[in-house]
Amino acid sequence: MDLTVGALTVAALNGRDSEPCLYDDGELRTYAQVRAQVSRLAQAMAERGIGRGTRVVVLAGNHPATVCFLAATFVAGVCGGALAAKTSREDARNALVASEAEFLCVTPEFAATAAALASEIPRLRVLCLGRSDGVEDLLAASEAYEPRPLRVSDVADQTPDDPVRVVFTGGTTGRSKVVRTSNRSNAWMTLIQLMEWDLPFAPRTYVTTPISHSGKTMVLSTWLRGGCLFLQDTSRFDAEGFADFVAEHEIEVTLLVPTMIYRILELPPARDDRLACLDTVYYGGAAISPDRLGEAITRFGPRFAQFYGQAEAPLTVCVLRKEDHVPGRLDSCGRPVPWVEVQLHDDEGREVPAGEPGELVVRGPLLMDGYVGAPEENARALAGGWLHTGDIARRGAGGFLTIVDRKKDMIITGGFNVYAREVEDVLARHPAVVEAAVYGIPDPGWGEQVRAVVTTTAPVTEDELRAHVRTAKGAVHVPKEIWTLGELPLTPVGKVDKKALRDLPASAARLPGGDRV
């Protein structure tokens, strides 16, 4: 039997019967119950022409039905993708066209959007996981089928080379792309999670990030460890509600993006005991402030573990384990896992000396097949057999890597390279600053200048923050302009949206006390 996502799904769901598998509106559904629903959905899908290689996109919230449908797509061997719940109609249309989607499966709150999209894309068929006027209810239709055992033979025709996933990249610094990955890539991602993430046995896992993004990656890893999934509505993260839910359901594992950790740190420390049951908080998806991370560890203990990857090499290129979170290393994304090869290259493709910045390149079984319909971008991204991640990193003592910037985010001012991440970290260390985003703006004399946008908790002047940066990094890194916002704009998957910041929102205000030349 080949190693495929379908085979892993069958193994995961067949491993147990009466144990809790999925929390559904106050009720814990067992592995036997989830397995039965996955079987019925897979049969209903097959009756509608959905099988190996069919291109299916999901636009859905974090609902139990969404998880069961995704598991059924794994068993069926479809090439699946997922749109974030906050995706605009225009972006959704572009993604569906670019990925050549044949089916769009939605939960009822997105049925009207789906119908409008189908009217613009003639080949697109719409199915709904629930009742909605004018759209077939796949859940109801699946009840007509008797559950069948899930067998290895059901997935025997799947191969490691089959395309099984498309990802619509966040596009925080440029236009979005459609990344296609294989069975091999996604199965290896899950195996690396099991081997390198130190997941507890039978974890109670709280999925707080969108199923369309990193939340999806916790499904098989949790089930293969015999655990139970709990889902959070991702329309808006509520730190108070998160803490209450964790305590009520004795959650042991969760996955957060840095902005969620910042919101949790704003809660009153007097009730931190609500999070005492947490064994591991995995975090990633965007850079985290080392100072805020240190604050979280001091307050909640050594229960944080970081993952590093990207859509083109999903999730598991590097890991910073709980025990690796020590002073002086909190800016690191960890060490490469043994199952991939990582180097840091200069612009000519040569390895850089230890301690020098270079582009992080990766090769191994995690790599994508390529970008859909973009041969020139594929040639650049996969030149020489390496995935060129676009992340600039340094390798420190013990082989730990630190991401200093996105290559596209690097600011060249007066011939000097300024890494936005380094300036952001310095600004975030100021007691008045909560978060910071830094990027370059055109300058006729210097080529580019540094602009910063911050959120604050106390009054602060531009001159004060400039002096703070100058002391830590030198004059070249000092922002020419510093603006403030109530909160930084985020992409649908929780990353700071620097595209939105380049045209400053109307609510942005320039900090007082700075040179306006």
Describe this structure in words.
This protein is α/β, with parallel strands linked by helices and 517 residues long. The protein folds into three domains: 1-168, Rossmann fold (3-Layer(aba) Sandwich); 236-404, 3-Layer(aba) Sandwich (Rossmann fold); 410-510, GMP Synthetase, Chain A, domain 3, CATH 3.30.300.30. It contains 15 helices and 27 strands. The strands form six sheets. The chain has an eight-stranded mixed β-sheet with strand order 7-6-5-3-4-8-9-19, sandwiched between helices. A hairpin with a 2-residue loop joins strand 22 (411-413) and strand 23. The longest helix has 17 residues, at 31-47. The protein starts with a helix and ends in a 7-residue tail after the last strand.
CATH H-level superfamily of the largest domain: ANL, N-terminal domain
Rough outline: globular
Sheet-strand content, in percent, reads 25-35%
* Strand arrangement in the largest pleated sheet: 7-6-5-3-4-8-9-19
- CATH topology heading of the largest domain: Rossmann fold
Cα distance spanning the termini: 68 Å
Using only C-alpha atoms, the radius of gyration works out to 23 Å
Biggest sheet details: 8 strands, mixed
CATH class of the largest domain: Alpha Beta
Structural class call reads alpha/beta
- The number of strands is 27
State the helicity in percent bands: 25-40%
Mean pLDDT: 93
Unreliable stretches covering 5 or more consecutive residues: none
Structurally, the number of domains stands at 3
Instruction: Tally the helices.
Output: 15
CATH architecture assignment name of the largest domain: 3-Layer(aba) Sandwich
